[in-house]
Design brief:
The protein has 300 residues and is an alpha/beta fold. It contains 13 helices and 5 strands. Strand 3, helix 11 and strand 4 (263-269) form a beta-alpha-beta unit. The protein has helices at 3-16, 24-34, 39-43, 50-68, 78-99, 110-119, 141-152, 167-181, 199-210, 217-223, 246-256, 273-276, 278-282, and strands at 156-160, 187-192, 229-234, 263-269, 293-297. Helix 1 packs across helix 2 (24-34) and helix 2 packs across helix 4.
Amino acid sequence: MDSQQALAFINGLLTEKRKQVLNELEEKLFLGIWENQTYSNIAAKTSHSDQYLREAAIILYAKITEILGIEVRKKNFKNPIKERYRYQLKNALSCQEQIAEPTNPVQVDESQSDSLSQQNYNPFIPINGRVEEKNLFFDRERKIRRVFEVLNSGSSVVLIGEEGIGKSSLLWMICQKAETRLNVKRQPVFLDLNLLHNESQFYSDLCSEIGIPESKDYQLTRNLRSCKILLAIDNVGKLTGEGFSRNIRDYLRGLAEGSNAPLKLILAATEPLNNLFNDSQEQGNTSPLAGICQEEHIHP
């Protein structure tokens, strides 16, 4: 698989997910990184500095990480893409073989059948990461019904469960069902904090997804007065990282308090919010978000 084939494959995945394909600079970065070039070498072929390309590469890695469901960085750039390519190629060949099945198939004994079952234990794509296709999502209707009961009662919700339990997929699917399941119509907005690294990026992405001018603090509050948003935040624990302060959690609470608030929140976390945000405990307070979010625990 050469660099051009890899680039075409990634752009194909982005198109399938109805996302924007890589722009010209991202394509140059992609090809250069695939060919093991340094940022300096790539920069020499563009009008941009090394630092600018490094920052652009972070966005590129995030885009590819999102569609593959596997974290991609410069040091492991090729392997996840090659693995996904081989996986999809194998599936395509398997489908062709099923279509070409003989009219009198050979009988398979029980031991062979068990072996085949073990090989095909998970027919869903992606095997890990967020499931966004409705036909591949199943067996969470009771939890979805419960979440909408809480949202319709006026509270916000936090989904709590261990890594890999399906919180991201559930969060995504709740956004897809919001139009028909909420008593008060709200625009669903999905933010993945794995892709946002500070408060500035958070506010910028939030405004972009809602469709309002980029703003923060009082100006954002004014811009949201006429909005009704269901804000889904995946990996909310990232709010404890460098680049984020308690202020953003206080602000989100202020925007989500009250039945007629501009925001209703649905969060995904690996542990209760009071445990997650230890800085709140140090000040003798509960987490601002814990005060307005009802906990819903997600199990296998």
